[in-house]
Design goal:
The complex is a heterodimer of chains A (about 200) and B (about 100). By secondary structure, chain A is an all-alpha fold. Chain A is built from 7 helices and no strands. Chain B has about 100 residues and is an alpha+beta fold. Chain B has 5 helices and 3 strands. Chain B has helices spanning about 5, 15-25, 30-40, 40-55, 75-95; strands spanning about 30, 60-65, 70-75. Chain B is elongated, with a radius of gyration of 15 Å. Classes of the chains: A mainly alpha (about 200), B alpha+beta (about 100). At the A-B interface, helix 1 of A face helix 2, helix 3 and helix 5 of B. Chain A: Keywords: Membrane, Transmembrane, Transmembrane helix. Chain B: It holds the Pfam family HTH_34. Chain B: This is Transcriptional regulator. Chain B: It comes from Aequorivita soesokkakensis.
C-alpha cells in the first residue's frame, strides 16, 4: 500500500467515527436563537413580573404563573427553533436526523434535565424557590455534559460553564435572574456564534 | 522497522476497518446499523464480522426486540487495543518522509 492508500484509510476511519457516533447536524444558529429568546424572556420578566423592592413573589400569584408560562415559552421556542434549523441542515447534508445516535443523544440529554425539572417543581411546591435559577443552570449543564459524548464540537464546555455559574449562583442568593440571563442568554449566544463560524469555515 | 509489525493484516480491508472504527466510538451497534453506515451487502458484512469475531476483536450479543432477533456487536478490549496500534502505525507511516 502507498501513502495515498493509508491516508484514504484514515480519512475513511474518521468519517465513519463521526457519522456513527456524533450527531453532527446541530446548528450553531439555534444556539444563538435560544440565547436571544432567553434574554427577551428575562427582560419581560424583569420589567413586568418581578417583585419591586419590598414586595414578595408568592407562589399562587398571577405574576408567578405568568413567570412560569414565560419560562415555558422560552424553552418551547428554543426547542422548536433548534428542531427546524437542525432538520433543515440535515436535509442539506443528506443526513438522517432520527437514528441510533440521535436517540442516544436525546436520552442522555433528557435524563439529568428531567430529573432537575422534577426536583425544581417539588421544591417550588414547598415554597423553596430561591435556588431555582441555580438548579436550572446546574441540571442543564449536567445534561449538556452527559449528551456531549454523542455530539461533535464543544458542547461539554458549554455544560461546564453552565454548571460553574449555577454553583456561583447558589452561593450568591438574590441574583438568580442575572445568572440565569448570563447562563441561558449570553453563554448560548457565545457558544452558538463559535459553532456558527466553525460551520461556515468547514 | 517495527512500524510494519504493527500494521494489522486483519484491518487491511475497508469493511473490517470500518466495523472497528464504528465499534470503538460506540458502546455497541447492531447489524443493520453497521450495514447502513458501511453500505455493504448482508453476506459481505457477515463474513467480515465473522473474521473479527474469530480474532476476538468483537463480541456478538444476540437478543430479541419483541419477536425480531437482534444482534449487537461490541468491541472487546483486545480489539480496541489492536485498533489503536494499527492507527498509530498508520500515522507513523504517513509522517515518515519517503526515502
Amino acid at each position: 500500500m502507498s501513502n495515498q492508500d493509508y491516508l484514504k484509510d484514515i480519512s475513511e476511519i474518521k468519517n465513519l467515527m463521526n457519522r456513527s457516533s456524533r450527531f453532527i447536524s446541530l446548528s450553531g444558529l439555534s444556539g444563538i436563537f435560544a440565547g436571544v429568546y432567553a434574554i427577551i424572556g428575562a427582560a419581560i420578566a424583569y420589567i413586568y413580573l418581578f417583585p419591586k423592592p419590598g414586595e414578595f413573589l408568592t407562589l399562587h400569584s398571577w405574576n408567578f404563573k405568568l413567570l412560569l408560562a414565560l419560562l415555558a415559552s422560552v424553552a418551547i421556542l428554543s426547542v422548536v427553533t433548534a428542531y427546524l434549523l437542525t432538520t433543515q441542515k440535515a436535509k442539506k447534508n443528506n443526513e438522517k436526523i432520527w437514528d441510533a445516535t440521535t436517540r442516544r443523544l436525546l436520552i442522555n440529554f433528557l435524563i439529568p434535565l428531567i430529573t432537575g425539572g422534577i426536583y425544581i417543581i417539588i421544591k417550588l411546591n414547598s415554597q423553596h424557590y430561591g435556588l431555582t435559577a441555580s438548579l436550572m443552570l446546574i441540571f442543564y449543564g449536567l445534561a449538556l455534559v452527559n449528551a456531549s459524548k454523542y455530539t461533535i464540537g464543544n458542547v461539554k464546555y458549554l455544560g461546564y460553564a453552565e454548571i460553574t455559574i449555577g454553583l456561583i449562583c447558589a452561593a450568591l442568593p438574590g441574583y438568580g435572574l442575572w445568572f440565569w440571563l448570563l447562563g441561558f442568554g449570553l453563554f448560548h449566544i457565545i457558544y452558538g456564534s463559535i459553532m456558527y463560524i466553525k460551520e461556515r469555515k468547514s | 522497522m517495527g512500524i510494519i509489525d504493527n500494521i494489522n493484516k486483519l484491518f487491511d480491508h475497508r469493511i473490517r476497518l470500518g466495523i472497528m472504527s464504528i465499534l470503538v466510538v460506540n458502546e455497541d451497534a447492531d447489524f443493520n446499523r453497521l450495514k447502513e453506515l458501511l453500505d455493504v451487502t448482508d453476506g459481505n458484512l457477515a463474513s467480515h464480522i465473522k473474521a473479527l469475531e474469530q480474532a476476538e476483536y468483537i463480541l456478538v450479543e444476540k437478543s430479541f426486540v419483541g419477536r425480531k432477533p437482534n444482534t449487537n456487536y461490541i468491541a472487546t478490549k483486545l480489539g480496541k487495543a489492536e485498533f489503536k496500534k494499527h492507527i498509530d502505525a498508520l500515522e507513523k507511516l504517513i509522517q515518515k518522509p519517503k526515502t
